[in-house]
Amino acid sequence: MQTIRQIAMLRDAIAAFRAAGESVALVPTMGALHAGHIALIEAAKRPGRRIVASIFVNPRQFGAGEDLARYPRREATDSQMLTRAGCDVLWAPAVEEMYPNGFATTISVTGVSDGLDGAARPGHFDGVATVVAKLFNQVRPDVAVFGEKDFQQLAVIRRMVADLDFGIEILGVPTQREDDGLALSSRNIYLDEAERPRAVALPRALGVAAREIGRGGDVATAMAGAHDMLSAAGFVIDYVALVDAETLTEHPEPGRPLRLLAAARLGATRLIDNVAVDMQASA
Fold this sequence. Notes:
Blueprint: E1 2-4, H1 7-19, E2 23-29, H2 35-44, E3 49-55, H3 75-85, E4 89-91, H4 95-98, H5 117-120, H6 124-139, E5 143-147, H7 151-163, E6 169-173, H8 195-199, H9 201-214, H10 219-232, E7 236-244, E8 258-266, E9 269-277
Parallel strand pairs: 1-4, 2-3, 2-5, 3-4, 5-6
Antiparallel strand pairs: 7-8, 8-9
Helix pairs in contact: 6-7, 9-10
């Protein structure tokens, strides 16, 4: 695996892949890799396809008081994991390479970015859209792979790709979980020994509510139950929301695909999760 830190060298590597008739997949990450990231690499693999993984802790998607300074950085370990997974290129630019002096452009995707985490973390998705657009222009992939755990992020990226005619296939990979159901996340390392067992209340609360709604139960009652489960476990809730799985609008029309999303804090750690609502659950 090549580790590349300059855009000119990255473009040379991509040009060599193209000259050999190979396609390119991009797996964007912020490092601190775990099995969920490796699942993205595995999903990207195809005969004749090269895989580029990026590691860049993007300062533009962290707000005031968020965990930019303490966000885990462990490139040596991440590099070993990517090599074992069969990645071809690690694209690991410095902040100065990504945002050189005088950088003045921001991409904003309205609609899908307005509520949920967009409301809880103002400016977050502008930072996400801007850095992902830059990664797309730097790597110029045929396909880019993202996890469904960051479901709103995935929706923002899909909207941006459609609106700006990037011509890139966006592949969403189902959330990878621990044995007890907790979604894999780089931020899970922040949970202490007392918090970690209680964190599983997040996927459990969503699962219970999603099954109740899928069986035709009262939505308000199911949502109140999720709130109660999370509060009992010690979470401070940012939101629990039932939305249209494509537009992320609340109060979706009958017959539309549904997704239940939540964000909540346990101690100093903010966790997010989501589950699909199967309206055939009663069948």
